[in-house]
Amino acid sequence: MKLAKHTLALILRTLAIGFVILITFGCNPGLGKISVTATRDFPDMGGVWPIAKYSIYLLNNSITCPEMEEAFKKHMTSTAPPSYTESRDMKESDIPTRHGFMMTEGAPIWHRYIVDRQETDYEGRVSFKRVKAGDYWLYCMLETPRHQRVLWNVKATANFYDD
Fold first, then answer.
1. C-alpha 36, offset from chain centre
2. How far apart are CA 72 and CA 91, in angstroms?
3. Long-range contacts at 16-21 (CB < 8 A, ≥ 24 apart)
4. Number of domains comprising the chain
5. Angstrom distances, CA of residue 128 to CA of 31, 49, 57, 61
6. Distance spanning both ends of the chain, measured CA to CA
7. Whole-structure pTM value
8. 127-136 per-position pLDDT tens digit
């Protein structure tokens, strides 16, 4: 009987260690990966180019969610100068725009939504690994060669067991 208890304890300990190893190094239930190849297409400037060395944010909420839209409306009707420190490097004409909002009063809001931030490689590729299953938004601020601002707000879904 004593040997059977010892054997059972050894088997349970071995199973527990194996489970920890599987979770740590193997398949993690409920985790996935979101991969992106970011490009921009400027037909008059040579076609498709990778978006290289740009920060892409993985957010758990859209930048057009009700909280952000309400704050954006207030930003657009306000006559007070922006209070957020990032506004120092902006032109006056940039402040009353969506981009200006995202860099000033909107920044403290959307920064709360950040799950991860990665930088694209020289071919525009980026991956967010070990992401809990669910819906996310990819967010990036770009500037075109003609100095126009572009904001990404692209919905992405991570599924269970995505590699």
1. 11
2. 18
3. none
4. 1
5. 11, 22, 9, 16
6. 46
7. 0.74
8. 998 899 899 9
